[in-house]
Amino acid sequence: MSISHQNRPSRGDRWSIAAFSLAGGAIAAWIGVSAVMRIIVLAGGTNVPVTLEFVDGVADVALTDGSATVPMELDRGILVAPQLTPIAIVPGILGQLVLILTVVTVVGCLLLLARSILSGHVFSRRNSALVSIAGITGLIGFAAVRFFDNMLANATVSLMTDNRLATAVLTVEPFTWVLASFIVAVIATAFAVGDRLQREKSALEKETEGLV
Predict the structure, then answer these.
(1) Using N-to-C axis directions, what is the helix angle for 125-161 and 86-118, rounded to 10°?
(2) According to the 3-state scheme, what is the secondary structure of 112-142?
(3) Which of 14, 71, 156, 168 stands 20 to 30 A from 188 (CA)?
(4) Which of 177, 153, 175 is closest to 166 using CA atoms?
């Protein structure tokens, strides 16, 4: 049994939470539609735009008057593949499916959390679990999406250039991932501690009930 704080939020807080919930639902719907459209393009296998991340990429860019070119360093670009094979299509589709599952899970947990807060239940074991599930799913899910996108990019480069284009085999952003992990851990810990303090307060109130 979870013991929750029963003070309902103010009207302003309720409007803010409702707006947050609507925004979350809209974001989930938009990402879902975009991912489905991407899956359709990937399944077709023709004229598929694929994002690449270059290693020491340099390109000559022409000036507007065409009189000369200047070297520019490139860190990423989009390669349109005329034809993709299943070895590239499959990880691309898997990445989009993982993206949909991740976003739906995270937004679903946060919507359930918002609903619980609107009803006056802020700290509880259920809410702590929802926060933890949303955070862990987001961290693992978005890392998996990036992994599958890298597989798609590498397969596309191999198919079109026979690996003669210097692109990153696997890219990670450790600072961003560690920062996100820290934020998730802090929020999950705050809800867990709040739940524990709430239960201790309720137990103390029961013990002292009738003494005054």
Answers:
(1) 160
(2) HHHHHHHCCCCCCHHHHHHHHHHHHHHHHHH
(3) 14
(4) 153
DSSP 28-87: HHHHHHHHHHHHHHHHH-EEEEEEEEEEEEEEEEE-TTSS-EEEEEEEEEEEEEEE--HH
Parts of the chain with a pLDDT under 70 = 1-9, 55-59, 66, 163-173, 200, 202-212
Nearest to 5 by CA among 134, 126, 185, 109: 126
pTM of the model: 0.78
Residue 121 buriedness (CB in 10 A; 0-12 / 13-18 / 19+)? buried
For 60-108, the pLDDT digits (tens) are 777 777 677 777 777 777 888 888 889 999 999 999 999 999 999 999 9
Longest dimension (CA), the chain: 92
Q: How many residues belong to the chain? A: 212
